[in-house]
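Researcher: Here's the sequence for the chain we discussed earlier.
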Amino acid sequence: MLTAPDGAVPLCEGWSIVPRLTLCVVDGPEEHGLVVPALAAPVLDGTDGRAVSGDMTDWCADAEHAGGAVVLSLEQLPEVLDWSFLLSSGIARGGFIPTLA
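Model: Thanks. This is the structure I predict for it:
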């Protein structure tokens, strides 16, 4: 379970992400990972707590600029994105995944 009560999201050791407009590849150790058809995937802008659609092009550029992305696995996407709760409650799995160099 992911817990980052102080806001410091842990690094996902052995994982990498390739954020591209058509496909986003999250590669993990051994046979773990996933491919997301990125162009069809929802991008959420959670700056004010509401889940509203964003732009995948902007997200890919932001992830490249940041050197990776925070990836969370949840049973269900909440209606309101409460980052403090998600990073401290233990209901999420994940962390910061660096881009593939």
